[in-house]
Here is the input.
Amino acid sequence: MAAHTTGVTRLAVVLVAVLCVAGVARPRAQGMRIVSLVPALTEMLFALGAGPHVVGVSNFDDYPPAVTSLPRVGALLDPNMERILSLRPDLVIVYGSQTDAQQQLERAKIRTYNYRHAGLAGIFSTLRELGAAVGRTPDAERLARSMQTHLDGIRARVAGRPRLRTLLVFERDPGSLRGIFVNGGVGFLHDVLGVAGGSDVFADVARESVQPSIETILARAPDVILEVRVREDLSAAQLAKERSVWMTLSSIPAVKNNRVYILTGQFLVVPGPRVGEATETIARTLHPEAFK
Amino acid sequence: MNAVDSTIGVAGSIAHRPIRARLLRTVGGFGAITVVTCLLAPLVGSTSISLARVFDRSIPFADNVDAQIFFVARMPRVLAGAVTGAALAAAGVVFQAMLRNPLATPFTLGVSAGASLGAMLAIALGLGVAIGPFSGVPFASLVGAAAAAGIVYRLATMEGRAMSTTVLLLAGVTLNAFFSALILFVQYLADFAQVYRATRWLMGDLDVGSFQPIVASLPLVLAAFAMFAFLPSSLNLLSIGADAAAARGVEVARAQRLAFVSASLATAAAVSLSGPIGFIGIVVPHLVRLLVGVDHRIVLPASALFGAAFLVACDLAARTLMAPVEIPVGVVTAMLGGPFFLWLLIRRA
Here is the structure.
């Protein structure tokens, strides 16, 4: 009986010790309240298991579904400071360019994480920094490593295959070839395309977004045209109709060889934890034979 | 400003002088400039193409990159520039004479703000369906322009008499401000990509990508020009004042109505085709007046022709100067037009 009691006591001591150590390891996570103005970083917080600490999100957040019930506190151009403060946050995630908001929060003695958007490598460094800021460094490390493994796997599958010259379109007026915006030689989508076994036909333009003329698109003659759309509400018939808009430019190899694709889904354009899925979707589109 | 003002006013005294020879000479001259510009413009671009290959029948069109650049990219673009430039310049002439205001532009009376609101709504709501020959955004901008013109017209003719140019101007300016506020509100609610697209639309764009949008707008532009043909003599008289014009036998209300409807129609068609490209409607008419005098029988056709050539040339600069990136054509016309207009003011003052 005595021995048994000792065993229970010992177990309790161990448990308390474990809890203490865990508590020391993530001191700041205890009851931490986080407001995020950056959708990609909201996703990261949830992926790191810090979701329950998120008490407010931007007007544009809609992933994961849990965010839809959270208070909205504005966005890049119009952060609502009163609402943010009323949520009594310990940490506010803001864009690096929101200097006014940063100063206001600093005066209110609230910590900020200032996000700067930069390429695929930037996703990993942001993830690690964010993990440290919310006391979840090991989780961040684990997530970063699994994302890296995913990307490396994709890279290996498409290795040795021809790098398809790709026009990555992310805006176009419906039903016409006007208002076309494509990816340039900077930014995470440019990097994603590289991992997925494509090369950007506007890689020489050092901007994230380029509005090319139809003449330039004809002259650059891409092997593949890849349209990325956030909205997922188009029917199959509408998608077919949108694809057929490109048929006017029949001298482009992508059009000639029927390699015009429209991919839908918000995850394709968010520089966050789902970048692996986005890359794989694009890689499977560019090199379907590599995934057989 | 007074100097310019009086040049429009002088027109009354020469209203009915025979001008056949001068008209032929001037229209011939400006016509030649326009034709040469429109023929040369498709030969130049960000890519170098071989004319021999363009017209080489032995290569199927589907495989002929040079021919596609020439016929799919450049020709529609030049044509869109010509149609838009002619419509905006002519509409500018008509509005300036009718409102007796040298600062009037095709956009003064709210037509472009209405068109912009329509386009903004179409972009924000994702209106993608084609209506008749028009795709979503051009159609919505046409509807917006018609609504704006309708409201202004209704206000200015409220008391069942001839239009009050003062009311027209005030209503137009107010409507411009009101629609601009609505545009800002819609933009505020829209997401980033939509705001960016809408902002880009406001800068004007002639890269229409096929002849189809031009074919859709052309009937409206032609109808406007058919009405313009009846205007010049009454514009000469209207520009000295409604009372003086009435005393010389002009049916003022009818002439004003025709002027307002035709110029609004031309503006609406141009804006729905290419977006609100600024400065054409004010720089071209003044420049042409400087060259050919103030008789609207000459100024109107000459402005239309020169407007076409001017916009085609501006677009040539827009698509080549920073290639492969483009400069929005509205930015080019503003950068050329603004300083030029200031120079014109200083010179004449």
About this structure: The interface with chain B takes residues 60, 76, 78, 170-171, 173-179, 181, 202, 204-205, 207, 210-216, 218-221, 230-231, 238, 248-251, 256 of chain A (CB under 8 Å). Strands of chain A lie at 34-36, 54-57, 91-95, 111-115, 164-171, 181-183, 198-200, 209-210, 224-229, 260-264. The first helix of chain A runs from residue 2 to 25.
